[in-house]
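Subject: Sanity check before I submit

Could someone independently write out the structure tokens for this chain? I want to compare against mine line by line before I put it in a report. The sequence has 211 residues.
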Amino acid sequence: MEDGHYLYDAALRARVAGNLDGFARTQASSEGLKRAAVSIALVCDDKGEGAYVLTRRTPRLSSHAGQFALPGGRIDSGETPVEGALRELREEVNLDLAEDAVLGVLDDYRTQSGYLITPIVVWAGADAKMQANPQEVARIHRITFRELNRPDSPEFVDIPESERPVIRLLMGPSNALHAPTAAMVYQFREVGLHGRETRVSHLGEPVWAWR
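---
Independent answer below. Compare away.
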């Protein structure tokens, strides 16, 4: 990796897999919480650089409508977090991956809205083709690792409603990604790409995401 460029190749896959393999993730108790899982699906952009998949939720959804999100959702009865994350990836963006595509698992993240989310990092392959499920996804974005590592991001903001600093990742000229998604993507950046043991459970969400 040089000058912020992350070529999507076998070396990148090995680096991310090795970093995640050496990471002792934190599992949190799900007592009183709803279980969910999301995929941090690693793809390439049209220049062959590494990127992750981010969706924009449709405006007609009953919760978190119109927001940026990782593909994911509630874990069904009898499913593991990996099975749930891969199923949601198929349902939302028509990306069908087997469990051998999983590179690792990050820390569980508790949300103010009552969920315990498990982030699963998966390697989608250079030929990954996706199609948005119009019932859930308005648009699919590929956010490059170069953008994820921009020097002015993330930002940490104190709010009066919480003792936890609120994290946001800057995207493009005017967009920002907020927690819980921002916290999990930030941990992927730190652990998966850079091998830094970084925790994010202390990072909070904006008040509008608590519902």
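---
OP: Matches mine. For the report I'm noting this point. The chain has four helices and eleven strands.
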